[in-house]
Write a structure and sequence with these properties.
This protein has about 450 residues and is an alpha/beta fold. Helices cover about 35% and strands about 15% of the residues. Bound molecules: zinc ion. The site of zinc ion (ZN) has 7 residues, from loops. One of its GO terms (biological process) is subtelomeric heterochromatin formation.
Length: about 450
């Protein structure tokens, strides 16, 4: 079976009325052009070269406008009406509304493009689920993962991936559990919101967080936000503490955290929120993921759900980076092995974030409980509470010279921190903390 491709040039008509914007219509046309020029689809109109003998290796999936009912599976009536009414405004009003919005712009075509983007993602997922294609990519815009059930923000109008996930569950009885893996450099706050109480969708996001100072500046992108109610444990945030991430950091996170959790969850379908703004060359993301890095992540995810996977474009603003990255992902979807990674080793800072996430996830996943710091967080929380009440002792982190930080490694009184110096020694991979007084009285 072939790999599917959804692209519709009408989606380029959503554009900023005045000036320039990183969420540029060319983002999807350059990816499409790359695919055509590599001979993966045949489009005489676009490439100017007609070859009727070669129908292309990818199967075209037609985009269509998502219906009000489909969008209503995730979004409020107010939000749908807000988007619909954009068609009634003139340019001057749309510019004013753009200035008042949270990082999102509007024009006369925004509503139509948003419905096409959403409907394109839905059709892409459905074609994979129905077995028409083995897997597929939706090259669509505007993106979706910041759009919450009630608010369009962060370049996003409707949450394409969330609406697709809900539609799949509604229309395909065999698809009960869906993994949404979000490797866009920004936290998909909208996706997290939509399924925060829902165990039938596991959301895993790797993103720059920096204590909530990186867009969308939402403290809920932290690793401690794991879902609520029935959905507790089904929201996994991997919050990087700075930019500059390399292939090795992402591969490490996938091998140590993402894939073990994903395998234990055992989804029936995988949707990738594929922003390419962690790609090398992206000025917003400031990271260095190579096309080979994205290819390896795709390759690993294809082992899930009998390969039933739809990749859906989110962010990514360097035109050559996103087209090279998307092409590398497509080649893996089509069956090629990923290229070699040049720098496969994770940095201590990234390894530390991953370890902290494992320590949190051990509450919810059997695999993680075997690899945590050995002491259940619940037990540690109880210890802290009792020792604080009785002896005014609180926890302190221990930093190893390698850069690894172990939270809650020591419990001490606040007075002790002024009086002692702590040395950490490593012996056969066991870290030992030694405390000595520096003031004697
Ligand atoms: Zn992004």
């Amino acid at each position: 079976m072939a790999t599917g491709l959804c692209y519709d040039r009408r989606m380029t008509s959503h554009r900023i009325i005045e000036g320039e914007h990183p969420e540029d219509p060319k983002r999807i046309s350059v990816i499409y052009e790359k695919i055509v020029n590599c001979g993966l689809v045949n489009d005489p109109e676009f490439s100017g070269t007609s070859n009727p003998e070669n129908p292309g290796l990818m199967v075209r999936i037609e985009a269509r406008e998502a219906t009000e009912r489909e969008i209503g599976l995730i979004h409020s009536r107010d939000q749908f009406e807000f988007a619909r009414e954009l068609e009634d405004h003139d340019d001057e009003q749309l510019i004013m509304m753009t200035n008042e919005a949270d990082s999102v712009y509007f024009n006369q075509h925004t509503f139509m493009c948003s419905k096409l983007s959403c409907g394109g993602a839905i059709e892409t997922c459905l074609r994979v689920a129905q077995g028409h294609v083995k897997n597929a990519i939706a090259v669509v815009r505007p993106p979706g993962h910041h759009a919450t059930p009630d608010c369009s923000m962060g370049f996003c109008i409707f949450n394409n991936v969330c609406v697709s996930a809900k539609t799949l569950q509604e229309r395909m009885p065999d698809i009960k559990k869906i993994l949404i893996l979000d490797w866009d450099i920004h936290h998909g706050n909208g996706t997290q919101d939509a399924f925060y109480n829902d165990p039938s969708v596991l959301y895993i996001s790797l993103h720059r967080f920096e204590r909530g100072t990186f867009y969308p500046n939402d403290p809920r992108g932290d690793s401690t936000f794991c879902g609520s109610g029935q959905g507790t444990g089904f929201n996994v945030n991997i919050p990087w503490t700075e930019g500059g991430k390399l292939d090795g950091d992402y591969i490490y996170a996938f091998q140590k955290l993402v894939m073990p959790i994903a395998l234990e969850y055992n989804p029936d379908f995988v949707i990738v929120s594929a922003g390419f703004d962690a790609a090398a060359g992206d000025e917003l993301g400031e990271c260095y993921i190579t096309p080979a890095g994205f290819a390896h992540m795709t390759y690993m995810l294809m082992s899930l759900a009998k390969g039933k996977m739809a990749v859906c474009l989110e962010g990514g603003y360097n035109l050559s980076s996103i087209s090279d990255s998307a092409l590398a992902v497509i080649k893996v979807l089509m069956g090629q092995a990923p290229e070699k990674i040049l720098d496969p080793v994770a940095s201590p800072a990234a390894a530390n974030v991953v370890q902290q996430c494992i320590d949190i996830q051990m509450r919810y996943w059997r695999w993680a409980s075997e690899r945590g710091n050995g002491l259940s967080l619940d037990v540690r929380a109880w210890q802290e509470k009792i020792l604080w009440e009785k002896y005014k002792m609180s926890s302190a982190p221990v930093m190893h010279p390698s850069g690894l930080v172990f939270d809650n490694a020591l419990l001490m009184s606040y007075k002790a921190t002024e009086l002692v110096e702590i040395a950490v020694l490593e012996f056969n991979n066991i870290f030992l903390a030694a405390i000595r007084p520096v003031v004697s009285n």
